[in-house]
Write a structure and sequence with these properties.
The protein is an alpha+beta fold. The protein has helices at residues 23-38, 52-66, 70-74, 130-155, 230-233, 276-287; strands at 8-10, 44-46, 85-87, 106-111, 179-185, 208-213, 237-244, 251-253, 273-275. Bound molecules: fe (ii) ion.
């Protein structure tokens, strides 16, 4: 996939720094979003209210954690069923395909429930300021996601321009699982397994995924990389990914990978709906099968 086909949308008129934007401005941006999402499926945003410098500051903050020794980071290892914590290198398989090797990356996931987490559960002792900086950034990402969904609803011509908001009311509480993933792609210094990449091809479970990239943009499969190759592999890469997810009690169409073979009385595949919470729980169990026991 080449990045030249991804549309660039100037979000200045709906920028985060504006408390409100006019219907005309939202319509203009919304139509561009609809065109991008219904075409290639991705868009680049510019002037959206979070600067490159803000993103760099976050990379520096999260790096304070990643630079710690293994034994220190291990105290914050992610546990199955709880989408919070450190994911060591070569332990997460984004493809969910057991025949594929795990990704060559470290990450730290911070879910919505973390906003109610005790200070002592955050890695602030080995990465000072982590909880404050992360929560502040997530709040801005939440607002941006809602602004995008607002513009999208208008761009789609929905009667209720706040239709999507109804299903994202509980973000950053334990009744929603919107998550920030801080990904730390280590320089590749050893032979990779066949098919091993920094982040395997996959589909997200979110309504909107915001990818805050380092200096290299573009998309390759899912992970935002272009020019993957020997020279790029030698470099440390970083990205922040914010997943805006529907509230836990919202029903979603059962994703293909979980659909049963059963047919209903009309001979059609039996469409079973899951709550967002159940759907994500299944995904987490797939990612961390050992933790099921
Ligand atoms: Fe993804």
């Amino acid at each position: 996939m080449s990045d030249k086909h991804i549309p660039v949308i100037d979000f200045e008129s709906c920028n985060l720094t504006k408390d409100e934007c006019s219907h005309d401005e939202l319509t203009k941006v919304g139509k561009q979003l609809v065109e991008g999402f219904s075409g290639i499926g991705f868009v680049y945003l510019k002037n959206y209210g979070i600067t490159d410098s803000d993103v760099q500051d976050m990379h520096k903050l999260t790096e304070k954690f990643f630079l710690n020794p293994m034994e220190e980071k291990s105290r914050y290892c992610m546990k199955g069923g709880n989408n919070f914590g450190w994911i060591p290198n070569k332990t997460e398989n984004a493809t969910f395909n057991p025949n594929m090797p795990c990704d060559y990356k470290e990450a730290f996931n911070i879910n919505s429930e973390s906003f109610q987490r005790e200070k002592s559960a955050w890695p602030d002792d080995i990465a000072p300021g982590f909880s404050h900086g992360v929560m502040e950034f997530m709040e801005r990402a939440r607002k941006l996601s809602l602004r995008i969904l607002h513009a999208l609803a208008i761009g789609m011509g929905l009667k209720d321009e706040y239709f999507f908001h109804k299903y994202h009311n509980k973000m950053h509480t334990k009744e929603n699982n919107s998550t920030l993933k801080t990904a730390y792609y280590l320089p590749i210094t050893e032979p990779l397994l066949p098919g091993q990449v920094r982040c395997g091809e996959h589909a997200d479970t979110s309504s909107v995924t915001l990818v805050f990239q380092d200096s290299v943009g573009g998309l390759q499969k899912h992970r935002v990389i272009v020019k993957e190759g020997e020279e790029m592999d030698k470099k440390l890469r970083r990205s922040l990914i914010y997943f805006a997810i529907c509230d836990n009690d919202v029903y979603v169409d059962k994703p293909l990978e979980y659909k049963d073979e059963n047919l209903n009385e009309r001979g059609e595949p039996d469409r079973q709906y899951l709550t967002t919470e159940d759907w994500l729980a299944k995904k987490l169990k797939q990612l961390w099968p050992d933790e099921k026991k």
